[in-house]
Fold:
Amino acid sequence: MIKFENVSKIYQTKEGQIIALNDINLGIEPKEFISLAGQSGAGKTSLLKMLTAEDLPTSGKVLFDKKNVNLIQPKEMPFFRRRIGMVFQDFRLLSDMDVRENISFAMEVAGYEDEEIQRDVPQVLELVGMGDKINRFPKELSGGEKQRVAIARALIHRPDVILADEPTGNLDILNAWDIIRLLIKINELGTTIILATHDREIINSLNRRVITMDKGRVIRDEEKGRYIL
Amino acid sequence: MPTYKTLIVNIRRIAKAGWRSFRRNSWLSAATVLVMVLTIFVITGLLFFNVVAQGIISELKQKVDISVYFKQEAKEADVLAAKDQLEKMPEVKAVQYISREQALASFKEKHKDNAALLEGLKELDQNPLQASLNIKSDSATEYEKVAQFVQDADFSQLVDKVNYKQNKEIINRLSNITDTAQRTGLVISLILAILAVLVAFNTVRLTIYNWRDEISVKRLVGATNWNVRGPFIVEGVLYGVSAAVATMIIVFPLVALISPKLASFVPGNDIFSFLKENFFSLLFFQVAVGVVLGALSSFIAIRRYLK
Structure:
């Protein structure tokens, strides 16, 4: 479903070149649950940004369903983005909207009918365990709750893949595990998950495919892997 | 491709989102509206200033005229013929004929307390006063031409004197003053209006800067540029409309208060009745300024976040 072919990304700065991604070759199949392991600065976020076409590779190709994402026209971009659900370390909820509105906004901009929105929003919030906090504002929620809402928002388009960039980075252990269990549940319902994290414990107990990155390279790619550095 | 129906749905959602944001961020909205009130107030004030200035100028202009005095022997028909000729000149706005009898009557009226003068007048066996034509023009600078015309006209041998020469100095000075006043007023108004617009624009820009993270989040969850831009423009329009209405609420009693004071000091200037007569066009003008200012500021300010 997703393919990285010889992808490199080099950032030019005043101090010289920074090689964020160095000749990445990867294939990801539907319904996989992948942990993208590595320390901060290893290139995990850069790799995800290539996939969402937030950033263009310096060389190489990123294919999503055999389509080169770098050739997507700006006008098509919002439609492409709706096929990818994204979850971030800092939640990125819209602060002036309550939980219901945060989710409905993503549906509204995608052109869903009002009836669909009214039906789906409570359902997806129920799925992530936030059904009773539908009218709260983000500032009234704990970190774990915010992340659940963010996941609900990522799910609303029934995306093919969910990219979770350090989703547990701002959470305590208990909340972190809640989020990981939620992602596993979503994966079991059929969505591909790419989980970028440097949390060794989480990766090791998942017992799924692990891609380990270091200094912009993929140094290990194992089924049922562990995070070893 | 979006159909007609989805377009309507989108517009409704954008309008709702704009309204919601305007309402929820009430402090920010109030602050922005306040700055826009200042802007619209300044522009309205300048408008009134120009109305008053125009009033004073035209008042002054009306006081300026030239009179052509005809010799005693000139017949009324000749004078009226001259009047016709003068009225045909494009520079001439109005010509008033004052017959010898009228001149005498107004002379008597003017000097009714001066018994000696009236007595002296009675001693004369005929009316000593001259028939005259009182000429008004649109602009003080035209009087030179009118005076010249009278001098060259076929009735010129009937003309005793034209009082242009003695008025020339004052006419020229007045026309200089009014021209300068109009030009300076316009330049100052433009500069102040531009300043006010820049302040309002910058306020909207800061408001949107405040939302830059939210904008990037909206784009990440699949919002099109119009999904992001639309609510901000709606909000800008709401700022503009509220500011315009608020300005009118301030301006109306203010003008009612100032108008009598101003009228006693520059006669013939009733700005309150001007306001009442033009209430709706003025309100429309203020709303238009506010809406254009708010919407355009939002539109321009958000561009850099939508690359």
In short: Strands of chain B lie at 66-70, 92-98, 132-137, 159-162. DSSP finds eleven helices and four strands in chain B. Residues 4-60+176-306 of chain B form one domain.
